[in-house]
Amino acid sequence: MVIYLDCPTDKLEERLLLRAGTHERSDDKSEVIQRRLDLYNKEYQEIIRLFQNAYPYDFISIKVGSLQKVEVFLEVATHMKEMFNLEARSALVHKKHDCNKIEYVFILGGPGCGKGTQCKHMVRDFGYTHISTGDLLRNEVKSGTKMGKEIDEIMRSGGLVPNNITITLLENAMRQSGCKHFLIDGYPRSLEQAHAFEEKIGHPGVVLYLHCSTSTMEKRLLERGKTSKRADDNAEVIKLRFETFQKESKPVVDFYKGTKKLKEVSAEKDPETVYKHVKQALLETVEKPADTASHPPAK
């Protein structure tokens, strides 16, 4: 956790000069204060930006220019209490993981809703192993195998890869990881896949659905397409992917709504805001475990 007390330079100078009237510090003289502030603006601002970029979810900026000492203290205390409370509860997740039990969390949502971004932070805070079916499929394409070429053609058309291929890649990845607690990102994408996973591998304990408007997802995908070089990040394929999601994947979300396992989080806002709600949803699941009984979805 990093707390930055943000105060305008003129206010800092005013406070230091005021302090100079009661403290005999050699660095509280006008000319020295100016050099200290110049150094602060030149060197320390870079450090602040570094921490802000490195720890976006644990960086707290508090504007203190107009606050009294006690008000600053109360602001800091509030943020620390909230942060340490969340950290303690996150640790609870690790403690409640049954080392002998395999756990699955499905991460669902349309293309561009931010599943991968949110999974990175869930891995950090909750100790899960992240397995992205999209990454598995793209890696298979890169391998140049016969299966990879078949997958490439399907993905370029915006369609769903046959489940026998996807579930085989999933099983291999989970087995090779040597882990037992998984975030399954982007799967199942159809009721058929959900049925196959529950029948062949196991039942999810939690299903997290990141819901987001088509316009927002399209904007994100087109922006990502400028640098990702992904074959499915172009306007034509994006439209087909949305159609596939509505037709095949939305029924999966609707099914899990009836199982008490589904946690819905709006993914419209920035990743930091979205993750606060994602984290809260998972913490609630640990504190109030979902019903583990599961009924296979209809084919």
List keywords for this structure.
299 residues; alpha/beta; Rossmann fold; 2 domains; two-stranded parallel ribbon; 11 helices; 12% strand; disordered C terminus; kinase
What's the quick description here?
With 299 residues, the protein is an alpha/beta fold.
Q: Structurally, how many domains make up the residues?
A: 2
Shape, per Cα inertia axes:
elongated
CATH superfamily label of the largest domain: P-loop containing nucleotide triphosphate hydrolases
Q: Find the structural class using helix and strand composition.
A: alpha/beta
What fold name goes in the CATH topology slot of the largest domain?
Rossmann fold
What is the tally of beta strands? 7
Main sheet: strands, sense, barrel:
5 strands, parallel
Give the spatial strand order of the biggest sheet.
4-5-3-6-7
Number of helices: 11
What is the first-to-last residue Cα distance? Answer: 47 Å
What is the helix fraction of residues, given as a range? 55-70%
Unreliable segments (pLDDT under 50, ≥5 consecutive)?
Answer: 287-299
The overall pLDDT, averaged over residues, is 84
> What is the CATH level 1 assignment of the largest domain?
Alpha Beta
Task: Calculate Rg over CA atoms.
Answer: 25 Å
| Name given to the CATH architecture of the largest domain | 3-Layer(aba) Sandwich
Helix and strand element order = EHHEHEHEHHHEHEHHEH
Enzyme class: transferase
GO molecular function: AMP kinase activity; ATP binding
Family: Belongs to the adenylate kinase family.
Subcellular location: Cytoplasm
